Amino acid sequence: MKSWSVTQLGEPIDVVQLVEGDVPEPGAGQVLVRVLAGAANFPDVLMCRGKYQVRPDLPFTPGREVCGDVVAVGPDVARAAVGDRVLGLTTLPYGGFAEYALMDQSTTHPAPASLDDAQASCLFIGYQTGWFGLHRLARIQEGETLLVHAAAGGVGSAAIQLGKAAGARVVGVVGGEEKAAYARQLGADVVVDRRQEDFVGVVKEFTEGRGADVIYDPVGGDVYHRSTKCIAFEGRIVVVGFAGGEIQTAALNHALVKNYSILGIHWGLYNTKNPGAVDRCHQELCTLADSGAIDPFVSQRVSMDGVPAALQSLGDGKTVGRVVMEHNGIGR
């Protein structure tokens, strides 16, 4: 089979190489899928650079999030059968930017018929993270104000749609007019171009001085510190990641005097700590997708030969929405 392989660490455009190899055999509890679509995520870029908390041995094929048809199952598989169209996480080193990928049955879920292959490949990581962060942790309520940073990215765009589906008023923060237009298209009530405006002032004006009830922060660093200037009384800051490159230090005395909570979301842990909650979340997301309340927006669909450039664009912050490899062959 053909696959994109990382043989040394560095920028994706430099280190992702097309190779030919054997189709892997599924082991116990694993399924083999023919990849229909593979969604690019920022952790894919970080793994290429060797800067993610998960550091697979070299060589490996990136692409953690896929939609595919099950073509073989290993021993002790009860959640999937040959012919099923599924979505979920791949099992490294056999990631999704290939013709075939391996998946553990525990992170394999039915793909909703309401979504095409590219959309279905995007329904897992970003939307699950958003649902757990906003609902299970922050307990977002109808009528509350949600502030979403990096609102044009994969995680942020999912949070906008989930916030609107929950009945919240959503403020999205982006960098640049193209990303601002995309956040508006997703349904954000107010969009702040951080290159032109101070989001702290906009949030205070929008909420008549109250501040945001929930802040969803995949950026960290100074963005987190400035967010504490516009968090509401009894507000909740959900720490999703540190895409800005700086891991901030929280001033707990400030959280005390303003009565707000700081919540960390490492969604991947739920797959081992509480897989039943992940299953229930998937069912809820499928219901929302079937009703049209959430609609994964794929801004760029590339063929298999476009994977290195697509990953590099994602790593350079030049993409909006989701970038997905649709498996329609090399060069076609």
Question: Describe it for me?
Answer:
The protein has 332 residues and is of the alpha/beta class. It has 2 domains: 2-123 and 297-326, Medium-chain alcohol dehydrogenases, catalytic domain (Quinone Oxidoreductase, Chain A, domain 1, Alpha-Beta Complex), CATH 3.90.180.10; 128-268, Rossmann fold (3-Layer(aba) Sandwich). It has helices at residues 12-15, 42-49, 117-121, 125-137, 154-165, 177-186, 199-206, 222-227, 252-258, 270-273, 275-291, 307-315, and strands at residues 2-6, 16-20, 30-39, 65-73, 85-89, 100-104, 108-110, 145-148, 169-174, 190-193, 212-217, 231-239, 261-264, 298-302, 322-326. The strands form 3 sheets. Strands 3, 4, 5, 6, 7, 14 and 15 form a 7-stranded mixed beta sheet that branches. Helix 5 (154-165) links the parallel strand 8 and strand 9 (169-174). Helix 4 (125-137) crosses helix 5. Its EC number is 1.-.-.-. GO terms for molecular function: oxidoreductase activity; zinc ion binding. Residues 11-325 form the Enoyl reductase (ER) domain.
DSSP strand tally: 15
SSE string, helix = H, strand = E? EHEEHEEEEHHEHEHEHEHEHEHHEHE
Report the C-alpha radius of gyration, rounded: 20 Å
Structural class label:
alpha/beta
Largest sheet: 7 strands, mixed
